[in-house]
Amino acid sequence: MIASPGADPAELGRGPLSRWLPVFWQASPDPPAVVPFPVTERTSPVRFLLGVIFSVKRFTVPAALLAVLWQVGEALVPVVMGVAIDRALATGDGGQLVWWLIVLAGVFAMLSLAFRFAAQLAERGTEAVQHRLRATLSRAVLHGDGAGARAPDGGVVSLMTNDVTRLAAVRLTVFPVGEFAGVVFIAVSLLVIHWPLGVVVLAGAPVVVWVMGRLSGRLARDSRVYQTLLAETVGRATDLVAGYRVVKGIGAEAEASRRYRDASRQTLDGAYRNVGLLGRFLTGSASISGVFVAVVAALAGWFAVTGQLSIGGLIAAVGLTQALLPPMRMLAMNAVPAWAAAVASSGRILHALQGTPDSAPHQPAAQTPPPPAVPVVELSLGSEDAVRIEPGELLGLVADDRVAAGIAAALLDPHVDGDVQISVGGTPGRSLDAYRSTVVVAPHHATLFSGTIADNLALPASPAWLRDAALRAAACEDFIATAGGIDAEVGEMGNRLSGGQRQRLALARALATDAPVLVLHDPTTAVDSVTEQTIASRLREMRHGRSTILITSSPALLSACDRVVDLHDQDTWELDDAGGGAS
């Protein structure tokens, strides 16, 4: 894409002359459509990193070729100068001098333009990779199927920023390729000038790079530790801000501040340690490469003294030796540390993506085991006729608040004599053992336990699929994702959750019992209408084959019932098969 001359579309502040030059390969103003990076349980950090790097070959391949031209141009400068000295200055030929000056100017133009466009394409590739990585992480966070999804907290903020920036190491396939090509070109040029010099470079350069790679081992390990500390500190700060009202309410500001300061101090110490290791690595690698270049230069000087090299050859050899130092240093400074940091970030992002539950969806109702034997339930309501609940029926009871509370209390404690009596399979509710093994009553004001969401759903003999299905039926996916996954803390008595979230979690706990007979008393009074409608539609599917008594006046919940008994008018009405109308 070429921008029109005379304009400055990117607002780069180009001068009055350069603004009239065309801008090549300008990025489109519209973000590209992306496909999430594929991840499986067998994907390793190195494999994921390579997949990320090679996902933008349309940028990296031409950028790498241009980087090769740049480094070859850098190495050609001393070669052209040496040839010019031998063919022009040594002979006094003015025409040769002009010719080689033109050639030298062409070499400088080539290497300058090659570097410019290589850097531009590498940056385009980096931006494209970062965009796709953030889209992949956003999809995992925002559209994960419930409990396993990562939370969009400080940890994910760190992933989206620091780790994505480190992982989008497109330059690993651009400039190091050019630097390696530059080293090879210099070695070949020295072979042509004087073959022993070329042999020394070809044999010694791989050894030097291998030694620098060995020196980077501790740096790579510490990079992952530091990035983990940084993410934990950012996450702690985010949690502190999110829970500030609770911290303020219990007077724990000093303790919360102390914990954050400790975490921040550990991260600062990790940063100092990481920077120190990086500095020692760069110092060691620069010393090794400097000694190697000095040895090559000394050999070239000895060959010139002994008459094996001409003056032009000596200048070319010394210039090539000096040109050998920058690519070797850049290999040490760019490739090795960047690779170490990118592998560490790849592992952290991969851990976040592999933790998402997209590959393990909730088990559908068709695959659940057959329901247990469900008895007939008879409910006597004082002067009213007994209400019979058939096995597998979803019955709605409509009453005023006082009567509804009385019915729920009587079902919670059925051995007390009163107007409300219940029998299960012909056995009176006073037989507590039989009653408790069959009937579960979820009170309106349910209490959550301190601990995690998973702790509040940790019921005996409750399989994981049933827990996930209960969370889905209670429409808990959204706040579980924002709270930090199923292992997120709910606080004391669930005080980290809103009223509606606590009520939905309590409903999920009741549904996870998979009781043959379940009694629910106003389970959605603190839930918005849209979520309530979702719960109503999923509740019928979740309780298929079991008996359920809904004590409520919610139209949305009553619309999901098979039959509704209205205690106000002492009337009974049934819903049609569509669940939408009375008959």
UniProtKB/TrEMBL annotation:
Residues 366-582 form the ABC transporter domain. Keywords: Membrane, Transmembrane, Transmembrane helix. Residues 63-334 form the ABC transmembrane type-1 domain. It is a multi-pass membrane protein. It comes from the Bacteria. It is found in: Cell membrane. Residues 353-373 are annotated as: Disordered. GO terms for molecular function: ABC-type oligopeptide transporter activity; ATP binding; ATP hydrolysis activity. Gene3D superfamilies: ABC transporter type 1, transmembrane domain, P-loop containing nucleotide triphosphate hydrolases. The chain crosses the membrane at residues 63-85, 97-115, 168-187, 193-213, 281-303. Its main location: membrane. Pfam families: ABC_membrane, ABC_tran. One of its GO terms (cellular component) is plasma membrane. This is ABC-type multidrug transport system, ATPase and permease component. The lineage of its organism: Bacteria, Bacillati, Actinomycetota, Actinomycetes, Micrococcales.
